[in-house]
């Protein structure tokens, strides 16, 4: 028995040594030693091209090296870091708006200035124009956004981090090759060195998808890793968003628009205000762009300003780009055009004692989105220096109109006005409600994802549409609440309440004509106001004075007292 034990021990030792030899010699020899074509793997275009690894994946973004510094495209910076840089292509300059000043950059130059006279000098040009593409220096952008980046070579790649969410990681126990796929015959993408930490992206039974700290991603064997654990990365907080000095009335807003087309139309204000209750802001349609140079005409009526002020009501004059009969947007593309419009409006407000500006710039195309929001920024800087309020009118937000940049408007403007109507409008191909309760609720909910509730005003319609379906097609006319009631009586229409629309609905057939009306009235307005109160909005606006019936002011007054 004593002789047997040593024999068993020897056999065990031989087995262990044999297994070790197999693992570390034969097995290792069977691993593929072929490296993948890394330039193709990362999509490297040339020696100064740096594909961007964003968070934990190889993105479709590319950084670029100019004179040893690293740059990213303006649109990529806007999408992931800050959208406040604006390239005025017509002027060949880059602008960045501060709370009370504006930085001006000339692409390719290391010096920069501000409108207020400040000067700066950078080691590398903050912006570079390469053909039609504008590139921004990441080191300069870091002054205005929180993110981190690291650039690596062999192969070229840039690791970009803009969010710091909890992640699963593990320490590398044994240096190992990172492979394109999980398998010993897979080609090599890089190396994970012993003692470093890797992110676990795709845990599996024997292999796991990982990314190394220097942006190599692929697969390694689990037995080369320590026990996975979760950690919360420390956010980069080198930049603090400044106070953009927006203002608040510190009370619930009730703004009603007074639609006037000529100076003489201002005379109607006395009669229209006979039944008004709870209004604290009047917005008359006084300013409009008259050409693509940014020249602004106005139909200001000083007597109405004095009348409103005598009643404790502020005047926020509406400024639009379409009341001249043509929609002007090209003036937004030049510094001169924007400056002309802004200076003329602000100067007139100061001269006449107007309290604020209500901006209603419409018919903006996606290509003009950047020009529009830069105009809003610059207007707010100029207006706030003169203690003027700025509110901006907006469509109900959808993906297709997100280039109005509600979030950026909310940073600069004092109030954002949601035009909670035109669900169906004059050009609609089907009949429908102007502002059903679901549409209103949706609009408010979407806007609040981008604008604080204490800045959001929801506008409600004092009008409705009478829809006619005939052999010629579908058409409609916008009418006052009073005319709507008359029309239904004349055509024997009996409105019935619809919970789904939050409105009374009426219809009638006369010959070839089929009439439909989604009626706005006291009950439907009260329901909208209830939703607004539930969301805690800054207030209400109404389009427009004179279209309502007197009892509407009772429910609005009750809302204002809540």
Descriptors:
eight-stranded parallel barrel; 3 domains; about 550 residues; alpha+beta; 33 strands; TIM Barrel; SH3 type barrels; Copper Amine Oxidase, Chain A, domain 1; single chain; about 30% strand; seven-stranded mixed β-sheet
Descriptive report:
With 562 residues, this protein is an alpha+beta fold. It contains 13 helices and 33 strands. The chain folds into 3 domains: 40-148, Copper Amine Oxidase, Chain A, domain 1 (2-Layer Sandwich), CATH 3.30.457; 164-231, SH3 Domains (SH3 type barrels), CATH 2.30.30; 253-462 and 521-561, Alpha-Beta Barrel (TIM Barrel). The strands form 6 sheets. The protein has an 8-stranded parallel barrel, surrounded by 6 helices. Strands 9-10-3-2-1-12-11 form a 7-stranded mixed β-sheet. The mean pLDDT is 95.
Brief sketch in words of this structure:
It contains 13 helices and 33 strands. It has 562 residues and is of the alpha+beta class. Helix 7 runs parallel beside helix 8, helix 10 runs parallel beside helix 12 and helix 12 packs parallel to helix 13.
């Amino acid at each position: 028995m004593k002789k047997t034990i040593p024999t068993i021990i020897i056999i065990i030792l031989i087995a262990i040594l044999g297994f070790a030899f197999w693992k570390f010699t034969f097995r290792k020899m069977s691993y593929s030693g072929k490296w993948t074509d890394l330039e193709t793997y990362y999509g490297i275009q040339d020696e100064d091209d740096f594909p961007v690894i964003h968070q934990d994946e190889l993105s479709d973004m590319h950084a670029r090296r100019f004179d040893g510094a690293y740059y990213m495209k303006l649109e990529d910076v806007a999408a992931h870091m800050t959208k406040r840089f604006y390239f005025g292509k017509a002027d060949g300059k880059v602008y960045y708006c501060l709370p009370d000043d504006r930085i001006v950059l000339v692409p390719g130059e290391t010096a920069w200035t501000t409108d207020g006279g400040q000067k700066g000098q950078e080691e590398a040009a903050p912006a570079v124009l390469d053909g039609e593409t504008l590139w921004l220096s990441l080191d300069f952008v870091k002054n205005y956004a929180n993110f981190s980046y690291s650039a690596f070579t062999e192969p070229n790649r840039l690791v970009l981090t803009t969010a710091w969410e909890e992640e699963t990681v593990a320490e590398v126990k044994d240096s190992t090759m990172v492979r394109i796929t999980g398998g010993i015959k897979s080609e090599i993408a890089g190396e994970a060195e012993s003692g470093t930490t890797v992110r676990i992206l795709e845990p599996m039974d024997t292999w796991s998808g990982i990314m190394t700290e220097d942006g190599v991603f692929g697969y390694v064997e689990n037995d080369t890793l320590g026990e996975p654990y979760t950690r919360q990365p420390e956010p980069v907080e080198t930049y603090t968003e400044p106070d953009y000095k927006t203002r608040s009335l510190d009370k619930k807003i009730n703004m009603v628009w007074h639609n006037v087309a000529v100076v003489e139309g201002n005379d109607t204000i006395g009669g229209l205000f006979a039944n008004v209750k709870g209004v604290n802001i009047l917005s008359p349609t006084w300013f409009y762009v008259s050409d693509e140079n940014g020249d602004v005409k106005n139909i200001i009526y000083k007597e109405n300003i004095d009348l409103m002020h005598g009643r404790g009501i502020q005047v926020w004059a509406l400024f639009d780009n379409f009341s001249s009969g043509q929609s002007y947007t090209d003036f937004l593309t030049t510094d001169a055009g924007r400056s002309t419009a802004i200076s003329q409006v602000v100067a007139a407000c100061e001269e006449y004692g107007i309290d604020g500006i209500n901006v209603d710039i419409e018919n903006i195309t996606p290509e003009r989105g950047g020009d529009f929001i830069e105009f809003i920024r610059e207007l707010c800087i100029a207006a706030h220096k003169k203690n003027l309020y700025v509110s901006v009118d907006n469509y109900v937000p959808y993906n297709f109109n997100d280039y109005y940049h509600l979030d950026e408007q909310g940073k600069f403007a004092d109030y954002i006005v949601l035009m909670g109507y035109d669900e169906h409008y004059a050009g609609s191909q089907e009949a429908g409600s102007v502002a059903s309760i679901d549409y209103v609720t949706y609009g408010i909910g979407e806007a609040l994802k981008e604008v604080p509730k204490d800045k959001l005003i929801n506008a409600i319609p004092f009008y409705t549409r009478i829809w006619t379906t005939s052999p010629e097609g579908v058409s409609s006319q916008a009418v006052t609440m009073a005319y709507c009631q008359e029309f239904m009586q004349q055509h024997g229409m009996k409105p019935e309440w619809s919970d789904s629309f939050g409105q009374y609905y009426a219809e009638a057939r006369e010959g070839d004509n089929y009439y439909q009306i989604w009626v706005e009235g006291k009950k439907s307005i009260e329901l909208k106001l209830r939703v607004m109160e539930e969301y805690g909005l800054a207030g209400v606006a109404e389009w427009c004075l004179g279209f309502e019936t007197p009892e509407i002011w009772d429910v609005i007054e009750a809302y204002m007292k809540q």
